[in-house]
Design brief:
globular, alpha/beta, three-stranded antiparallel sheet, 13 strands
Amino acid sequence: MTKAREPVAVRIDRRSAASIHQQLYDRIRAAIASGQLAPGERLPATRSLAAQLGVARGTVDAAYARLAGEGYLVGRGQAGTIVSPALRIAAAPPPATHTSPSLHRGVTAPLPLRMGLPALDLFPRTLWSRLASREARRFSDTSLPYPDPMGLPVLREAIASYLAVSRGIACRGGEIVITHGYQAALNLTAALLTKPGDTVWLEDPGYRFARSALEALPLRIAPVPVDGEGLCVDHARRHFPRARLAVVTPAHQSPLGVSLSLPRRQGLLEWAADADAFVLEDDYDCEFHYSGHKPPALKSLPGGGRVFYAGSFSKTLFPGLRLGYLVLPTVFVEAVQTLIRRLHRGEAPFEQAVTAAFMTEGHFARHLRRMRTHYQARRQALAEALVRQFGEDIQFSLSPGGLHILARFPRHRSDVELADRALRHGLEPTPLSPQSIKHGAGQGFLMSFTNIPEKSASGIAARLRKAIG
């Protein structure tokens, strides 16, 4: 076994839009593919490499663990980490910098500003891998039959405990069903409460995937305007009094980012009681609130018995996990158990077990605290960089929470055209105007800051300025 080389093949470009973790991964894998790092060759210790490059040791650990998981590296304990001796270099061409081969070959890495993703570079992969390995070792004959269709009990109890503390929602694990993400929760709620042709209130502008899912059932969409206090409940009551369901994002309205005011929350719950209707509360990013008091969950207020509360791990952990949950009004638990058994035989228990361990051992709460700190810094860095680049040609204000910035460009007209220009420059903001059905919110960009480290913000803002002129 040869002596560990100096990290000549590992250089970090702090001006790059790519995360440091991604750069480390790409550089080391390219060095292996090109023969710079030969099979059997020992890599620098993670502590040493981190010190030499001026990065966190955990970042190097995560890159090594990712390469080891793909078979490029082998850990030898105190003997260090080596390039796999069994590796055939010809079978490992260097990856393009815009692809991420960690799970599926050919799946492109997300472009900067893309909506709907947490900070992928901040996820604790090493810790998650260790928990997954432990749960895999615990796999036994009792894990082989069909799982509980409502979800793994230990995960449901962990979610109930978390919601009691973080959102003030008093519920038991037995009132929670594990779903295949938010859309599955939406479909389940609609299947339970509605029949084809029923009317459903939907925020306008609103979450377009919710709209398409409800239209496919098919249900009559009642577009309700949104202003600075959120959903205009009085407007909805006047124009669509006989709706069966209201689908809302009260914490940080999607896409405008405003919070539903307390009087309107109370008005919404009063309407549900008066009309014998129900509310689906999509609390998709409530964990990320940066200033002031976090708004209360509808489910926690008087009258919350008519609220179905939907949460997901897509924004708090990672979307590929495909796990969400739905807190049910107590009177619907038995009906949902029956309906779930007709629809499917439950979600895969292994991912649920790992998630439950992550929550019950305190990692989830620590992870969220760390993410909030980073997100606040990343949001501020991107906002300042946009102002430096655009000056008076951009208009935006930072909402108290959320995972994106809504920016408007008053000198330009078509946000769809601008988004196409940005895409040609390797950026992926979402245009605002297509999010509306009837009550337009004007032109603008929805831009996620989650995957843009502070040191990359200036470069991203400059590329956006170049793209749209």
